[in-house]
Structure formats: structure tokens, C-alpha cells
Automatic annotation (TrEMBL):
Gene coding for it: FBXO25
Claim: Nucleus is one of the keywords in the record: yes
Superkingdom in the source lineage: Eukaryota
Designated name of the protein: F-box only protein 25
Species of the source: Capra hircus (Goat)
InterPro entries linked: F-box-like_dom_sf (IPR036047), F-box_dom (IPR001810), FBX25/32 (IPR040394)
This protein's pathway: Protein modification; protein ubiquitination
Amino acid sequence: MPFLGQDWRSPGWSWMKTEDGWKRCDAWSQELEGENSQCDIGPGIILNSEDEEIFSNEEHEYASKKRKKDHFRNDTNTQCFYRENWIYVHKESTRERHGYCTLGEAFNRLDFSSAIQDIRRFNYVVRLLQLIAKSQLTSLSGVAQKNYFNILDKIVQKVLGDHQNPRLIKDLLQDLSSTLCILIRGVGKSVLVGNINIWICRLETVLRWQQQLQNLQMTEQVDSGLTLSDLPVHMLSNILYRLSDGWDIVTLGQVTPTLSALSEDRQLWKKLCQYHFGEKQFCRHLILSEKGHVEWKLMYFALQKHYPTKEQYGDTLHFCRHCSILFWKDCRLALLLEDSGHPCTAADPDSCFTPVSPQHFIDLFKY
């Protein structure tokens, strides 16, 4: 049988005749041209530790074309999600099951793509992506990395569309860009899954997202109905007392003069400090005013620099200690159909469930 291409079962390549001879037609060459405007970022943006360009001006054009080809072959828009609501977490091989569950496998199989559309789970998924970006990015498999950036793309587009939670995404992209710069500068010193050009193209995509969020303009919606400023003072105060993030209180205080005065309430910042930090931490970072009063607002931001704050989420993943299953628990189905969220065999399933924080999720897969 004649040899027609890289595989004898393939139909062979397409060729076209030119003045210089016969040349092979690449099916993706035209599509790459359309991505030039999206993936092109000046070579001076990606620097090494001595603030020198990784690519010289002469090499940049060639390197840009090379990584576009690699990026096309490793299209991050490829859907690889299982979209499962629960998975079995096995940490060792048994006679019935070989291998063990990894962080990348859990990230692939659990339905994080739909979770970002749920306002109760959005902050949880963003925090999990941020922790992975800081320390676990290189431990993910190639498919898990594609899913990671695919989910991140959906998050960025959601924020650009509804203008909600832009600060969380900016912090996530800042940590991710720092990690990618370190990985690219230290190529050869760390293990990277995939070609270096793919990682450079991912960094360029993150930088483009950061620029889009930086240019995000909040549009004022004109509505003749009830507004925040029309609420009574005691209701506004109650809203501020329900916020667990000091930066949210500061931001809300900039809306109206009334909210500005309420956001400076000493009791508000005192309760916020008592919620997030302990008495021993207060003693180490005590800040007093000229009159001898404790400056709770200043203490909160000072303590925040030294100690982690408590994390609050509307909904999280749960772990069943009886079944060793990690799952999303749908509270509405649990009330209507008495569905625990996974096929639990325990006599009292609710007693076996444990909420899983983002850090605990990563710790489950450390062996």
C-alpha cells in the first residue's frame, strides 16, 4: 500500500503548486491569522528577573508564530468536563480499584463549570482557582490545565458581563500572572506539562484579561424604584454588619454620605475584628488613638496583613466520611426529595457530611 501521510490510514496531505514549487496546505493557517490581534502582546511585557526581554525583537516574530501554532493545537476551548456532582476519593490501590484520585482528576470530573453560575458557589470556585494558581498549577495534568483556563475564561466573561465581584477576579489574575512569570523564567528548573510556548500564550491571555478588567466601567442603571439610599438608617446599618470583608465595607461607604458615616462605626469594626481574629492577636497589634481608644478599623487592616481571615461561602463542596465521596450538595433537592447529593449507604447521612474549604479540597489530594 502506498504511503500517503503520517499514518497509512489517513487521506494524506493537501498540496498546492506555487512559483517556488509544491507546498503543503495547513488547515489551521488561516484560522491562526484571525487570532493575531488577540494573542499578540509586545515582547517587552514578559521580562526575566533582570527586567530583560525573554525574546529579542528579531526573535519575537518567529516565537509569536510558533506559540500560536502550539496554542491552536492545544485549544483551551476544548470541553473536557465530566460534569459530575460527586466523585469517589480513593487514596490507594485496592483489589477492586487500581490507582488513586488526583487533584487534576477531581478538578476535571466535578462540575465547576456550572458552579460559577450559582451565586452561592461563585466565591468558592474563585478561591479554589486562586489557591491552585499559587501552588498547584504544575501538578495538574494537561487536560486539567485546559479545563482550568477554560473555567477561568468563563469567570472573566461573566464578570465583564454582569460587573459583579471584579476585585476577586483581579486578585486571582494577579496571583496567576505572577506564577506564570516565575514558571516561564525558570523553564528547565521546574516541571511544566506542555510546550513552553503554550504557557507564554496563556500568560498573554491573562495579561489581556487584566487589561479588560482594568478598563471595566460600571454603568449606572436608571430605575424609578426603591434604591439603597431610600432605606432607613437602621436597615443600612444592618447591611453593613452582615458584611465579613472590610474592603466591602469601605467600598459601600463611598456610595452615600449616610453610608460613609455608618462605615466608620467603631462597634462595626470591633465586631469584625472579633469575628476574624483572637484576643492574643489583638494584644500583639494593639493600635490606640490619642485619646486612648482602640482604633478597630486600623487594627483590622493591620491584623489582615499578618493573619488569615475567616472564609465565608454560601455553598461549598461536602465530603462524606462514611463513603469517602466528594460532592456538591443541592439544598433544594435535599429538602424536596430528601436527596443527600450522592448514593450514601450510612444510616444517618447528615452526620457524616463535612463542609470542604478550598484549602481542605487541595489537602485531600496531598499524598
